Amino acid sequence: MSLNAQQIAERPDAVLDDRVIVTCALTGVAANRDQCPAIPYTPVEIAEEAQRAGEAGAAIVHIHAREDDGRPSHRVEVYRSIMEEVRKRSDVLINFSTGAVDVPREERVRHIGELAPEIGALNMGSMNYAKYNPRKKAFVFNWVFENSFETIQFYLEAMRGAGVKPELECFDSGHISNILPFLDMGLIEKPLQFSFIMGVLGGIPATARNLAHQAEQVPPGSNWEVIGISHLQWSMVAAALSLGGNIRVGLEDNFYVAPGQMARSNGDLVEKAVRMARDTGREIATPAEARRLLGVGSSS
Questions:
Q1: How many domains does the chain have?
Q2: Residue 33: what pLDDT?
Q3: For residue 107, is pLDDT > 50?
Q4: Which of 189, 208, 216, 226 is a plausible cystine mate for 240, CB 3.0–4.6 Å?
Q5: Can you give the pTM of this predicted structure?
């Protein structure tokens, strides 16, 4: 919730508490250039998109690696090249994905341990994960996404060992409380960082009412952001801003700045998100402010 003038006068440091952290998901794994010409593939292309996103106001970039032909990659050397190229161009926080289907968990997290980005994405539950085409009466894809408690613990231990902040990706309400055993074990430190992915078939539908319910479930003092999928992205951004949350946009999640208007780059999507945030009376967190708010150490 935005702060009023009296609150700011009484506690000036509260201004920082009301900053909105903008994350940009640059490329994903599923979309290709036939669908959106701006999708980056190579380390240099991904880094250039990170620079555009950062210049537009993103404090964090979320990255899946790709081979130069666009295929998903889990090779450490590809992630290393991406990190090096991003660091040449921007001081944004780097968030590397660990998400994949039918890929051994050791391979999904190896780059986290070896490269130690500021943040590592961690899916907090198993689920059906699908996309359905009503015109064709068929599934575009239809996967089972495995993230057992054993797998979650494996990733948390790897991230803790590397000094990487886990981003707790929750596709449904039950995923939020899955962190509780690991808090009890001491495998993760507060403040917690949650991401609510909404609008995936198999997960929670993307509505403002559902987002408010999700936000109410997080432990006190936690940070959270919303990730709205496809055309629902902008309504979920608006809902998150009014509820005091952070936001994620980017070509991984949505191609369109407005109906029928495809983004030319990730920067276009970030620019719109920043305008929306400022229209609600909230200011944008810089990378340095995001590090403070999330409890993340400075990048090397």
A1: 1
A2: 96
A3: yes
A4: 226
A5: 0.92
